[in-house]
Write a structure and sequence with these properties.
5-stranded antiparallel beta sheet; about 10% strand; about 280 residues; alpha+beta; single chain
């Protein structure tokens, strides 16, 4: 056990030192005493406490959970083989196979691309984002739908920026818990959904409390306020539309609830398109 903890500590340090801040979307603010990411940055990216991560890297914690290790693997940009190695030296067992989401159908892809001014994306019953349009990237950022921002439930509960920008976070988050409970009843044998729920219960006190309340809710429409860094506060209506082809996929569409939001969205979408054209 002691040897394995030493190997874990060395592996994490080496992996951290290989990642540049720019690789994970962080600003590179001046000179660093050591190469790569700081421990605090890894902890923030993996949604764990800094103290816990420091103790993990020093080999002074017990057996980490599978979901937590996957968060660290994502933060450190580990390859599939490195992810398996991390689980083996940290837990003594290989991780569950990584889930590959069902592909997005061509017709839904066309619907997404056919709404240039309305942010929209498609999720499966695990709330994995299967596709999003350019307007959604303009509103939520180019990384929306990828990496650690690839699941809207994880984003809502584990990403600090998502929580801060959702001004009606509590109502929207409680609704998410209710939707997940409905989906678990529909897919009781889905291991990846069970793993997601277990991860959120362990990482979020609010999620655990709402889950233990046996809250069941399948709201598919509503209104929420979003605080954007440049566009200010926007009020949008949202609708979740179900595909009836057996895929259990949902099309999530945001529409402006007032004229100010409509103008702000149009400005964001235009700026995003201009930036893409310039980069190309």
């Amino acid at each position: 056990m002691t040897a394995r903890r030493g190997e874990l500590a060395a592996f994490l340090r080496a992996a951290r030192e290989r990642v540049r801040p720019a690789d994970v979307g962080l600003p590179d603010l001046g000179r660093r005493r050591t190469p790569g990411l700081r421990r605090q940055e890894v902890a923030e990216l993996a949604a764990v406490s800094v103290d816990w991560y420091v103790r993990l890297e020093q080999g002074r914690v017990g057996t980490p959970g599978s979901g937590v290790l996957d968060g660290i693997a994502a933060a450190l940009l580990l390859s599939p083989a490195e992810r398996v190695h991390l689980h083996l030296i940290a837990r003594g067992e290989a991780p569950p196979p990584q889930h590959v989401p069902a592909p997005l159908g061509g017709s839904l892809r066309a619907v997404l691309d056919g709404m240039p001014l309305l942010p929209a994306y498609v999720v499966d019953f695990r709330f994995d984002i299967l596709g999003r349009n350019a307007a959604a990237a303009a509103l939520f950022g180019p990384k929306f739908g990828h990496g650690r921002l690839g699941n809207t439930a994880r984003m809502l509960f584990l990403d600090p920026e998502t929580r801060e920008t959702n001004l009606d976070w509590a109502a929207f988050a409680a609704e998410m818990v209710g939707n997940l409970r409905v989906n678990q009843a529909r897919h009781p044998d889905d291991a990846h959904l069970a793993e997601l729920i277990a991860e959120l219960r362990a990482a979020s006190r609010e999620f655990a409390a709402w889950w233990d309340d046996q809250h069941v809710h399948e709201r598919s429409t509503g209104t929420k306020r979003i605080r954007h860094a440049t566009a200010g506060t926007m009020t949008v209506a949202y609708d979740m539309l179900a595909a009836l082809d057996g895929s259990d996929q949902r099309l999530f569409v945001l529409t402006p609830a007032d004229e100010a939001t409509e103008r702000a969205l149009r400005t964001l979408v235009t700026a995003h398109a201009t930036a893409l054209a310039s980069a190309g």
